[in-house]
Design a protein that fits this description.
about 240 residues; alpha/beta; two-stranded antiparallel sheet; 7 strands; about 45% helix
């Protein structure tokens, strides 16, 4: 995890990829606005939150300082309400552009911090000063990571200019493939024409559903067996 986090914390390339992603997203929103006609469905964007619009870098720094080498749910749940996330490079400017041009912004995140989960997510958005038309534009999934159901609901009433995420599963559920690295890549290649067009993907080498294709779960336990599996994957043997 140290290489991944050093890259997140220190590399200009990491930040540049966010600027690049939001530049691409803005370009597609501008094109959608130019093509939009009276009587068309209203325009919208749909975005993941964590590691897409907001970066939990101090959380990861805390794990490093504690010599913890995998995602830790208990620490994450205590960290979320502290509102220590920072806006991803370019995120706020992009969201404000959408808001000023009448493009609806829908946030969809998968979290579970108990009864206050929604309240915490709402607090994160307000702390960062992101536009939020009303609470119906924030969806917090507590018992599932399947965002497709809510996405489909939004698409009935809106024309989605772009979807944004740091994880393929932020776009469609089909990518949630466990214990099969090659199978997940195959699913991705089926939609290769969508990336940079309808789907804008941001970098996240530290966590996400790509890990489920290796370990069978997205948040593996920090034990020697999983460290061995990670080494096998890094060597290209998974």
């Amino acid at each position: 995890m140290l290489y991944s986090l050093a890259w997140k914390q220190a590399s200009a390339e990491y930040e540049a990829l966010y600027y690049q992603g939001f530049n691409i997203a803005k370009m597609h929103v501008e094109l959608a606005l130019a093509k939009h006609k009276k009587g068309d469905k209203p325009l919208a964007i749909v975005s993941d939150f964590d590691d897409t619009l907001a970066l939990p870098l101090t959380y990861w720094g805390h794990l490093v300082n504690k010599d913890i080498d995998f995602f830790d749910d208990a620490i994450w749940d205590k960290w979320i309400p502290k509102n220590e996330m920072i806006a991803s490079p370019g995120a706020k400017a992009f969201l404000e552009f959408c808001h000023k041009n009448g493009v609806e912004i829908f946030y969809i995140t998968s979290r579970e911090q108990g009864e206050k989960t929604f309240e915490y997510a709402l607090g994160n958005i307000r702390h960062l000063g992101f536009p939020l038309k009303d609470e119906s534009h924030l969806t917090v999934l507590r018992d599932t990571s399947n965002k497709e159901i809510r996405q489909n609901e939004i698409m009935k009433d809106y024309d989605i200019a772009v979807f944004l995420g740091d994880n393929l599963n932020d776009f469609r559920r089909k990518y949630y493939v466990k214990d099969d690295v090659d199978g997940r890549k195959k699913k991705m290649k089926e939609d290769r024409a969508m990336f940079g067009k309808k789907y804008v993907l941001f970098p996240n080498p530290t966590d996400g559903h790509w890990m489920a294709s290796i370990f069978g779960e997205s948040e593996p336990d920090a034990n020697d067996q999983n460290r061995a599996m990670l080494k096998e994957a890094a060597a290209g043997n998974r």
